[in-house]
Amino acid sequence: MSQPKEYRKGPVTLRGRKVPTSTTDQRLLDNAGPGDWVHTDPWRVMRIQSEFVEGFGTLSELGPAVSVFGSARLGPDHPVYELSTAVGTALVEAGYAVITGGGPGTMEGANLGAVKAGGTSVGLGIELPFETGLNPHVNLGINFRYFFARKTMFVKYAQGFIVLPGGFGTLDELFEAVTLVQTGKVTHFPIVLMGTTFWGPMLDWLRATLVAEGTISEVDLGLLQLTDDPDEAVRIIREARR
Question: Model's pTM, two decimal places?
Answer without folding.
Answer: 0.84
